[in-house]
Amino acid sequence: MGVEIRVEGLTKSFGRQTIWQDVSLTVPAGEISVLLGPSGTGKSVFLKSLVGLLKPDRGHIWIGDKDLPYLPEHQLYETRKLFGVLFQDGALFGSMNLYDNIAFPLREHTKKSESEVRRIVMEKMDMVGLLGAEGKLPGEISGGMKKRAGLARALVLDPEILLVDEPDSGLDPVRTALLNQLFIDLNAQINATFLIVTHDINTARTIPDNIGMLYRRELVMFGPREMLLSSEEPVVRQFLNARRAGPIGMSEEKDVSELEAESKMGLDVGTLPPIQPQLMPSDGRIRAAQHAPGAWCAAHGVTPPPGSFVDDLGRNWVEEWPRYVASQQAAVMHGGQPGHPGGAQY
Ligand SMILES: Nc1ncnc2c1ncn2[C@@H]1O[C@H](COP(=O)(O)OP(=O)(O)OP(=O)(O)O)[C@@H](O)[C@H]1O
């Protein structure tokens, strides 16, 4: 069911440059969380710190009862096996075909027979839609396929935690949408804890259960998607609205005079757009980590922006949700195939 990552007071600097300080958050077990932030705010450094590739200056990263930065080498090696990591470019070995790339962690970290390795590699290639491409070299495939190959490799050791660095970088909007659906489908299948770093606003709006944002060397906010998507916090609003106006400038933060000039011109961070319905697994199953649409807003007395939770077919998922859950449960009980949530009938 995935494991929780509990970060307490984490601080990292390179020489005199503080990247972020005093970051505390709990990434809930089995849920999908997204970390946003302007370029250079240290999102990649944060992921690398979580997996023990970089050592923080201060603070704790609790994985169960293990405080990762302070583990002796052999325990760190064991704890790292809980993680699968998908780096930006897939980090594939250029001279190996996809099969050998994906088999690599199994051959390196386990004593499995070649027939067992084959079974696992083919299963993961199937999961990411790459069957038939086993013999291809990384140089012969598209960026989207490289990401999926990197994802298959991140999955071979059945991780409890999947860390993903900018899955959308270099991908067109359609491939990004397909990859996002794949993350949702995978999360439903393996129930691991996902933490995805991204710049893509559509990704941030539609896939996560939780969203966090790094800015000015701090974690501005981290919490359920509905909390961030209905937030009044200017930095969050500007980022999610992709506005020029607001506190974030080209070199991180704007000064007071720039902000005053914007306000005189009537520029602002924009109004809150509707909260889109969250993507659901394409095979109709309901993820173990799924929260009912609108539940956080209702529990916290927050009125979501008008038009929230309404899909392309005009259905409001706050009202639709109980019917959907009942229909999917009935289909499973009667041995049928649950319907696709995007279909007019399910
Ligand atoms: N190994 C390193 N040594 C020194 N400085 C580093 C190192 N790794 C990263 N940095 C610096 O840390 C800062 C944050 O980098 P990072 O790549 O984490 O940002 P990011 O938020 O992921 O950016 P982007 O969204 O553009 O990928 C940058 O100023 C970078 O130059």
TrEMBL record:
It comes from the Bacteria. Pfam families: ABC_tran (PF00005). Keywords: ATP-binding, Nucleotide-binding, Transport. Residues 5-241 form the ABC transporter domain. SUPFAM superfamilies: P-loop containing nucleoside triphosphate hydrolases. GO terms for molecular function: ATP binding; ATP hydrolysis activity. PANTHER family: INTERMEMBRANE PHOSPHOLIPID TRANSPORT SYSTEM ATP-BINDING PROTEIN MLAF, PROTEIN TRIGALACTOSYLDIACYLGLYCEROL 3, CHLOROPLASTIC. This is Putative ABC transporter ATP-binding protein. It comes from Actinomadura rubteroloni. The lineage of its organism: Bacteria, Bacillati, Actinomycetota, Actinomycetes, Streptosporangiales.
